[in-house]
Amino acid sequence: MKINGRHYRTIWLNPDGRSVEVIDQSKLPHSFETQTLSSFGDAVEAIKNMIVRGAPLIGVTGAYGLALAVADDPADNAIEAAYAELLGSRPTAVNLRWALDRLRDRLFSTPPPMRRTLAYSEAAAIADDDIQACHAIGEYGAALISAAAPRCPDRPVNILTHCNAGWLAAVDWGTALAPIYKAARAGVAVHVWVDETRPRNQGASLTAFELLGEAIPHTIIADNTGGHLMQHGLVDLCIVGSDRTTRAGDVCNKIGTYLKALAAHDNSVPFYVALPSSTIDWRISDGLREIRIEERDQSEVTHICGRTERGETARVRLTPHGSPARNFGFDVTPARLVSALITERGACAANEAALQSLFPNLANSA
Question: Is 129 known to be catalytic?
Answer without folding.
Answer: no
